[in-house]
């Protein structure tokens, strides 16, 4: 999508601090980190949210999680949180599927 921020990062039109790539995914540091490790993992293809990705490309959906695990391991974390926000009402602000990988601090439950 021409106006999608994450599509532009995937295409290299906007810089991002990329930490990991696969055939289907790209992982880059969040510009407003909420933990010492805060990386966004996105599919290279545009899907609006996690449910749309799971229905349209289940293999890419699974690869987001395996990419997050690889990044956490590479960054030295065994414990981490992964979060998908699906819809504006729960905080999704960029409507390109993305997984938040968070680690390096204590996290409470339920998240706020």
From TrEMBL:
Pfam families reported for this sequence: HIT
SUPFAM superfamilies the record matches: HIT-like
Domain spans labelled HIT: 5-112
Superkingdom to which the source organism belongs: Bacteria
Span of the annotated motif Histidine triad motif: 96-100
Regions annotated as coiled coil: none
Protein name: HIT domain-containing protein
UniProt cross-references to InterPro entries, sorted A to Z: Histidine_triad_CS (IPR019808), Histidine_triad_HIT (IPR001310), HIT-like (IPR011146), HIT-like_sf (IPR036265)
């Amino acid at each position: 999508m021409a106006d999608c921020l994450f599509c532009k990062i995937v295409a290299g039109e906007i810089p991002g601090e990329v930490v990991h790539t696969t055939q289907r995914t790209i992982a880059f540091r969040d510009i407003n980190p909420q933990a010492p490790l805060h990386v966004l993992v996105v599919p290279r293809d545009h899907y609006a949210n996690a449910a749309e990705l799971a229905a349209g490309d289940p293999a890419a959906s699974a690869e987001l999680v395996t990419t997050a695990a690889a990044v956490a391991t590479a960054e030295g974390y065994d414990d981490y949180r992964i979060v998908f926000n699906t819809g504006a009402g729960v905080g999704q602000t960029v409507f390109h599927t993305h997984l938040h990988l968070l680690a390096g601090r204590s996290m409470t439950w339920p998240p706020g």
